[in-house]
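pls design
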């Protein structure tokens, strides 16, 4: 087993060398593509036409449904809208709310809603829909709403009048407008107010009703979601007549379908075809900063993972730079914590770091009581070998990355068995039921340093704190960060947060990716933002003649 792993890692290093030779040229070409795209975006918008984009699994048409993760968000973002959205400078911008202000003590935020907004069925959107969404779906703990862990500071939403609502907080929360722009779309009370909203199959799986720029035409499970433009969209009639989401889980198939003009726009997950894509006159690749980091979660309900030396050993054992260079073709940087480099005011790399060092990893494992006593290459403790089941979803490069991680950990003496799952099956097993030992995935969050939801002890077990990590000192730091809107004070607090997390490792931090977007070269009008944010402006997109 050890010889095989050495051979595979050696093969990876050869790939790294080859990639390094071509990386600079690729990045220069991407820069040229970016400039060309910006110039092309100056053409006049054209009405008409249709595009297709891929998703990896069937969506659930309800932002707050417990199963509505990643793939659902991409679809829901253009069917529904929230009170705010990411501005083109990434600060919160008006959406269903035209303006907002906080009380002097920071405990009450008032949002003034747009008038004359209609749901897709023609019913008026009012403050009652906002109150219903938050009080009945998000704040009712028995509902287990996806994303509810972002709103632990929120006590209640009240209606002031038909077009004004107040958000009452348990404690000041400076990032509230930013989080309202992040997977927090408003649901219609007149469609979900009766019965169990999670079991409303007609709404969640067939006929969603939103206020967004596109509305449902048809959904064929396992095949496609077809949406047509909403002529009454409050920010103007969309240019594109139709948007189709095709269910295409395999990254290679997505690229093949881009070449055959069956897909028009998506995030490039498999970069092995980058040079071939760049040589195509029909396709272009652009890059964007994104508030995202990849991680490995160790289930802290498992006694083996409560010793921080095990987390530190695993971090030392994985050659993260090699994976960035080989799998991601250099489009990423090693992560040391959850605050991403695009947040320049808050990010720091002056923290504890874990360079690739197999011997150091073995030393830390030995200090934690894990040693190879029988010479089979796998460490044991109390007579039991260190074996981990590593869950991985079929999505982009995740499986390929997991295979490399597996080989690195075997080299360090940890026997890792991969368990590959379909995306929605992974969500149910690992996120809903928390039935896992080790999991690879990523977090995206608003461009704001507030990461309370992913780390707070009160979100362990059922919320976004996937590892189930509990640490009172970290809780205190995160609460302090939420309580102030003073940028200088926040920067100091989140620097301390990053220093502390790099020592305690609630997650195994892997890398901050640079996002590459593959586009039909005729698709124009997209803002210079990451993929998920551009969807908020889909009504501005158009196909050049």
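designed seq:
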């Amino acid at each position: 087993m050890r010889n095989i792993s050495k051979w595979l890692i050696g093969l990876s290093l050869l790939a790294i060398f080859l990639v390094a030779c071509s990386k600079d040229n690729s990045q220069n070409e991407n820069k040229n593509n970016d400039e060309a795209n910006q110039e092309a975006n100056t053409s006049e918008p054209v009405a008409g036409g249709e595009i297709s984009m891929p998703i990896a699994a069937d969506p659930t048409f309800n932002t707050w449904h417990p199963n509505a993760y990643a793939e659902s968000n991409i679809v829901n973002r253009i069917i529904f809208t929230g009170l705010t959205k990411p501005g083109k400078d990434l600060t919160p911008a008006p959406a269903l709310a035209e303006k907002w202000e906080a009380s002097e003590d920071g405990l009450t935020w008032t949002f003034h809603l747009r008038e004359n907004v209609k749901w897709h069925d023609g019913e008026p959107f009012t403050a009652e829909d906002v109150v219903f969404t938050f009080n009945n779906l998000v704040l009712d703990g028995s509902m287990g709403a996806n994303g509810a862990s972002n709103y632990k500071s929120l006590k209640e939403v009240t209606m002031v009048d038909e077009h004004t609502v107040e958000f009452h907080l348990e404690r000041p929360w400076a990032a509230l407008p930013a989080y309202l722009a992040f997977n927090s779309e408003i649901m219609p009370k007149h469609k979900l107010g009766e019965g169990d909203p999670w079991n409303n199959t007609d709404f969640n799986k067939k006929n969603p009703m939103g206020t967004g720029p596109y509305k449902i035409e048809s959904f064929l499970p396992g095949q496609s979601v077809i949406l047509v433009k909403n002529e009454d969209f409050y920010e103007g009639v969309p240019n594109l007549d139709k948007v189709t989401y095709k269910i295409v889980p395999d990254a290679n198939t997505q690229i093949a379908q881009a070449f055959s003009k069956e897909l028009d726009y998506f995030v490039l997950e498999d970069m092995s075809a980058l040079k071939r894509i760049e040589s195509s006159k029909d396709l272009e690749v652009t890059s964007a900063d994104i508030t995202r980091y990849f991680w490995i979660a160790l289930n802290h309900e498992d006694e083996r993972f409560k010793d921080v030396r095990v987390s530190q050993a695993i971090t030392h054992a994985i050659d993260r730079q090699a994976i960035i260079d080989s799998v991601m073709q250099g489009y990423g940087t090693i992560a040391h914590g959850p605050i991403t480099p695009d947040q320049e005011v808050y990010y720091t790399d002056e923290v504890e770091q874990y360079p690739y060092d197999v011997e150091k990893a073995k030393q830390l494992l030995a200090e934690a009581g894990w040693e190879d006593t029988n010479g089979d290459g796998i460490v044991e403790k109390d007579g039991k070998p260190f074996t981990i089941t590593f869950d991985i979803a079929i999505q982009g490069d995740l499986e390929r990355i997991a295979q490399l991680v597996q080989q690195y950990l075997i080299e360090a003496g940890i026997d890792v068995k991969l368990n590959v799952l379909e995306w929605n099956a992974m969500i149910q097993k690992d996120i809903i039921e928390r039935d896992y030992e080790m999991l690879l995935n990523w977090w995206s969050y608003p461009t704001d340093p507030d990461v309370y939801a992913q780390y707070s002890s009160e979100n362990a077990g059922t919320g976004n704190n996937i590892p189930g990590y509990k640490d009172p000192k970290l809780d205190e730091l995160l609460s302090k960060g939420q309580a102030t809107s003073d940028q200088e004070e926040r920067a100091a607090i989140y620097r301390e947060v990053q220093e502390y997390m790099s020592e305690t490792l609630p997650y195994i931090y892997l890398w901050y990716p640079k996002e590459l977007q593959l586009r039909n070269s005729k698709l124009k009008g997209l803002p210079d933002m990451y993929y998920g944010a551009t969807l908020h402006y889909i009504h501005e997109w158009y196909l050049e003649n």
